[in-house]
Amino acid sequence: MKILVPVKRVVDYNVKVQVKSDRTGVDIANVKMSMNPFDEIAVEEAVRLKEKGVATEVIVVSCGLVQCEETLRTALAIGADRGILVETTVELQPLAVAKLLKVLVDREQPGLVILGKQAIDDDCNQTGQMLAALADLPQATFASKVEFVDGKAHVTREIDGGLETISFTLPAVVTTDLRLNEPRYVTLPNIMKAKKKPLERLTAEALGVDVTPRIKTLKVSEPPKRGAGIKVPDVAALVDKLKNEAKVI
Ligand code: AMP
Fold it and tell me: What are the residue boundaries of the structural domains of the chain, listed by start?
């Protein structure tokens, strides 16, 4: 079984982004970029499935600027077998990415597509669901455990108030939650090996997908600054403030 893992290049989670002065977005010039953390979990899971003998090949794909190649090399260093870079300078929205991935799913015929549940830059949480709909595949989002029994996938999902386990046939789309696994450290020898792994370069046009943005960002603004806290003398004063000032009880 082939596994396809889409990986997105995003601003590193440690970076505190600044809103641009014209409020059209956040400033990402000269900031550290990394693989979306949920995608690292997806790559790790796919590589573990290959190590267990469940998967035969792990293919990673990234759509965006030419610099996404770095993200693909990181995924190859974790243990993926080959990479596909779909190059475009257009700012991609989830529907465009899902359409590009659909073309690759048709071409590669993976048994499983594992994506992150959301990209930490746009927080959309849409691409996996859109891909499942476009490719007409079963989907399991927010996976915290993935198992394969008798040709079927069993996925435990994190839902409000507990866990849900669902079973479905392959091929399918799964999106990862934080507790699925802890990605391994990438070692220097594996970084060196990754440089020699195959990487195919495609363009959105070559795949015949119109990636024109459908949604326009009107304004991006900083969250309001939090006011300073105060100390209350006792529980009665706290309850009084919650009732009469904050009006939350
Ligand atoms: P989103 O719907 O934008 O929150 O993204 C959900 C997941 O879709 C991410 O965790 C990635 O696995 C995948 N994805 C989104 N954008 C891209 C992209 N440009 N290239 C590759 N994968 C992507």
Answer: 2-222
Across the range 153-166, mean pLDDT stands at 93
83 CB within 6 A, ligand 1: no
Record the pTM. Answer: 0.91
Cis peptide bond prior to 171, omega within 30° of 0: yes
First to last CA, the chain: 54
DSSP state at residue 237? H
Q: Is 7 in the pocket of ligand 1 (CB under 6 A)?
A: yes
At 26-74, the pLDDT tens digits run 999 889 999 999 999 999 999 999 999 999 999 999 999 999 999 999 9
User: Is the pLDDT at 225 greater than 90, yes or no?
Assistant: no
Integer Cα distance of 131 and 127 in angstroms: 6
Distances (CA, A) of 7 to 35, 86, 96, 195, 218: 7, 11, 15, 17, 27
Class of 2-222 per CATH? alpha beta
64 lines ligand 1 (CB under 6 A): yes
